[in-house]
Write a structure and sequence with these properties.
The protein has 188 residues and is mainly α. The protein has 9 helices and no strands. Helix 1 crosses helix 2 and helix 7 packs across helix 8. The radius of gyration is 19 Å and the shape is globular. The N and C termini lie far apart (52 Å).
């Protein structure tokens, strides 16, 4: 490395700024809901310049997507139990806990909010879906490599995720473990 280059350190200034911006977004969402704050308000709360947020994320929609994906990847990682049925049951239970938790409805509403927020919102929504589908596909590919018959990722979204999200979005009762397991059974 020459003198003009600096080594990037994991956990350095960039990571601290990212964590502060994520914290600020999470707090603002809890206080005001999605779409009810600006990049400037996020920047002020995080103690960074607006330009830092625009340089790193480009738009509020992209930032919201990053916050949601980071949260999902932390709280609902793709399981690897050794069987497709086990992976899907574990994953579905994680999603059910996440979307029925204290901020669960906010996550469900994110997709709706992004969809109605112009071209950038649609791009951010699509990025969110593509990334989560890629992660699901990695779980399904592992099952196929073990010799199991795996459904298509879109089938997982249609038959497992969509019913849970609709129930939460429209307040159609709890996501009891029996209900969630039944969705997995029907999918398989």
């Amino acid at each position: 490395m020459n003198e003009g280059q600096r080594a990037r350190r994991p956990g350095g200034r960039s990571a601290r700024i990212g964590a502060e911006v994520h914290r600020a977004v999470t707090e603002l969402i809890s206080e005001r809901g999605y779409g009810n704050f600006t990049v400037g308000e996020v920047a002020a709360r995080a103690g960074v310049a607006d330009s830092s947020i625009y340089r790193r994320w480009g738009s509020l929609e992209t930032l919201l997507t990053d916050v949601a994906l980071t949260r999902l990847n932390t709280q609902s990682p793709m399981p690897d139990t050794g069987s497709l049925a086990g992976d899907l049951r574990t994953y579905a239970a994680q999603v059910a806990r996440e979307i029925t938790g204290p901020d669960g409805l906010l996550l469900v509403r994110l997709a709706v909010a992004l969809s109605s927020n112009g071209e950038q919102g649609l791009r951010a929504r699509d990025d969110f879906r593509v990334e989560r589908t890629r992660q699901l596909q990695s779980m399904l590919d592992r099952a196929t490599e073990r010799g199991e018959h795996a459904p298509d990722a879109l089938d997982v979204l249609d038959h497992l995720m969509a019913p849970m999200y609709i129930r939460v979005l429209f307040g159609m009762g709890p996501l009891a473990p029996e209900y969630v397991d039944g969705l997995v059974d029907r999918l398989l």
